[in-house]
Write a structure and sequence with these properties.
The protein is built from twelve helices and 24 strands. The chain is an alpha/beta fold. A hairpin with a 2-residue loop joins strand 23 and strand 24. The chain is globular and about 70 Å long.
Length: about 475
C-alpha cells in the first residue's frame, strides 16, 4: 500500500503553516508569500518522537501539574555574562534551559560574537570550574574557528580570553549526532552556528529549508529544556527574510537577538526583539576591531562621532531617543532633490521606517505648510543605527523641514517628541533621562512636547527646555 503524501504550505516571511495555498498569508498579510514545502510522506516516528517519549517516561510523575510555588523553587540562577553589553541585552544573564536565536545579515559578525561570548564564559569560570562550553559549527572547519579564537584571545575588553580547556569545538550538521553530543557533554552553554546548516534525516528536504529549520530548532529547544543547557542558534537573514526564515523561529525560541549594523562600518548593535526573561527593547553596542568585538561604553558619542557643535548645515537634527534602559543621542539626516522629469516622488529611508517617513511628510505638508510634493526625499539615521522609538518623529521632522526650507536647525539643539496626524506633539516618557544625556554631551537646548508625563523645570542641568504644542510651533522654535 502506497504511503499518503502530506502537502504543506509555508509562508516564507513569517513561517505560517497551512494545508492549502492562498494568495495572501493569513498571519502576516504578505501577498504571494506561501510556498509549497517538499513532498513529505507520512513517516514512522523518528528520533524526535522517540526522544520525546523517553523524556516523558524519565520525568514520570514530574509531568503532573504542581502548585506554582513548587515550580518556582525549580528555577536555576542565571549565568552571569562577563561581556556587559550582552548581559544588558539578555536581561541580566543567561537563563539555564533557555533558547536564543541570534539573527543578522551574513558577514555582520554573529560568529565572532558567539565565539567571543563562549570564550569569555569559559574564562570567567576559573580553573576549578566543572562546566563545559560547546561550539558546534556547520559552516566552517574547526581549524578556521580555532584560528579566529586565537585572534580573539586577548581583545581589550576580554577578561579571561580563551585560556580554558573547557571550551570545546566540533564540526557537525547531523541533528541526531548533535543531540547525542548534547546528551554526553551536557554543556552549560552551547552555540549552533548556524541553524540553516543542520539536517534532520527524517525530513526529505534540503538543509536550510523552512521544514528543516523548524524541526531542527524545535528539537534543540526540547533538548535545552530537558538538559538545562542554554542553546544559542545563529541564523542568517537576507534583505527580504526568505533565506531559511529565522522569522519562522521567533515563536519557537525564548529570546531573539538581532545583530545589526553596516558591514562597511565598525559600529554594531545587538538588539533584543523578543525576550521572555527581560526587556524587549534593550540594545548593546560593540565596535568591530582586528582583535574582535569591543564594547562601546558611550554609544551616544559614537553615534554622533564626537561632533555635536559643528555646523553641518540644513538637513541634520539630533534626537534624544530611549532604547531600553538607556538614552541615546542619534543624528537624523534628511535630503531633498527635485523630481527629475516630473515623475513620481520617491521616499527612501535608511535605519528608519519608510511608512513612518511618508506619514511624517504628509503631516509636514498639511499641518505645517512645508511642501514635499515635487521632491524626492531621503532620510537616514547616522552610524547605521536602526531607530524604532516614536520620539524620533520630532527631530526627523526638523531635519526634513530644515533641508526643504534651507534653514539649519538651531545650534546645540536636541529634540524628542511624537508627531500625531493632527500636527500635535505628543508626550514622551523619561524626560529627565533625556535632559541628563543631552547635558552630558554638551547640548544647551532641548525641544520637548508642551504636555509631559512628568513635570520638569524650564532649566535643568544647564539645559534650556523649550516646549511646543504643534509641529508648526516646533519648527518656529527649532529652526534658525
Amino acid at each position: 500500500m502506497s504511503k499518503r503524501k502530506v502537502v504543506t504550505f509555508f509562508c516564507k516571511q513569517c513561517g505560517y503553516e497551512t494545508p492549502r495555498w492562498e494568495g495572501k498569508c493569513p498571519a502576516c498579510q504578505e501577498w504571494d508569500a506561501l510556498v509549497e514545502a517538499p513532498d513529505q510522506t507520512e513517516r514512522k516516528p523518528g528520533r524526535r518522537g522517540a526522544r520525546r517519549d523517553s523524556s516523558l517516561a524519565a520525568r514520570g510523575a514530574g509531568s503532573a501539574p504542581k502548585p506554582l510555588h513548587e515550580h518556582a523553587r525549580e528555577r536555576l540562577p542565571r549565568i552571569p555574562v562577563p561581556i556587559g553589553e550582552c548581559q544588558r541585552v539578555l536581561g541580566g544573564g543567561i537563563v539555564p534551559g533557555g533558547s536564543v536565536l541570534v539573527g543578522g545579515e551574513p558577514g555582520i559578525g554573529k560568529s565572532t560574537l558567539m565565539l567571543q561570548l563562549l570564550g569569555a564564559l569559559a574564562g570567567s569560570a576559573g580553573p576549578d570550574g566543572k562546566a563545559t562550553w560547546l561550539y558546534i559549527t556547520g559552516e566552517e572547519a574547526p581549524s578556521q574557528i580555532a584560528e579566529r579564537g586565537l585572534r580573539l584571545s586577548h581583545p581589550p575588553s576580554a577578561k579571561n580570553g580563551f585560556q580554558s580547556e573547557r571550551l570545546k569545538l566540533v564540526s557537525e550538521t547531523d541533528l541526531a549526532t548533535i543531540l547525542d553530543l548534547l546528551e554526553s557533554e551536557h554543556p552549560q552553554v552551547a552555540v549552533v552556528d548556524s541553524i540553516q546548516t543542520l539536517r534532520n534525516a527524517q525530513i526529505p528536504s534540503a538543509p536550510g529549508s523552512i521544514p528543516q529549520v523548524r524541526e531542527c530548532a524545535m528539537d534543540l529547544v526540547d533538548a535545552a529544556r530537558r538538559l538545562n543547557t542554554t542553546i544559542f542558534m545563529v541564523g542568517h537573514v537576507t534583505k527580504d527574510g526568505t533565506l531559511a526564515g529565522p522569522r519562522a523561529l521567533e515563536h519557537v525560541v525564548d529570546t531573539v537577538l538581532s545583530f545589526e549594523g553596516e558591514t562597511r562600518l565598525d559600529l554594531r548593535c545587538l538588539r533584543a526583539t523578543k525576550n521572555r526573561f527581560g526587556r524587549t527593547d534593550e540594545v548593546g553596542f560593540f565596535e568591530m576591531t582586528p582583535t574582535g568585538l569591543v564594547e562601546v561604553p558611550d554609544p551616544s558619542a559614537a553615534l554622533l562621532d564626537g561632533d555635536n557643535a559643528a555646523d553641518k548645515g540644513p538637513g541634520s537634527a539630533i534626537g534624544a531617543l530611549c532604547e531600553g534602559t538607556r538614552v541615546l543621542l542619534v543624528e537624523l539626516q534628511g535630503l531633498t532633490v527635485p523630481v527629475p522629469g516630473g515623475g513620481s516622488p520617491r521616499r527612501r529611508a535608511s535605519g528608519l521606517d519608510v511608512n513612518r517617513l511618508a506619514q511624517l511628510l504628509a503631516v509636514l505638508e498639511t499641518r505645517a505648510g512645508v511642501p514635499f510634493g515635487g521632491l524626492d526625499v531621503f532620510a537616514s539615521a547616522a552610524g547605521g543605527f536602526t531607530v524604532e522609538e516614536p520620539a524620533a518623529d520630532l527631530p526627523l521632522a526638523l531635519a526634513l523641514a530644515s533641508i526643504a526650507t534651507n534653514r539649519p536647525v538651531r545650534e546645540g539643539l536636541v529634540a524628542a517628541g511624537e508627531v500625531g496626524l493632527g500636527g500635535e506633539i505628543r508626550p514622551v516618557p523619561r524626560l529627565e533621562a533625556r535632559v541628563s544625556e543631552a547635558a552630558r554631551l554638551g547640548f544647551k537646548t532641548l525641544l520637548l512636547p508642551a504636555r509631559g508625563r512628568t513635570a520638569i523645570p524650564a532649566q535643568m542641568h544647564g539645559v534650556k527646555i523649550l516646549r511646543a504644542r504643534t509641529l508648526r510651533e516646533a519648527l518656529a522654535l527649532g529652526l534658525a
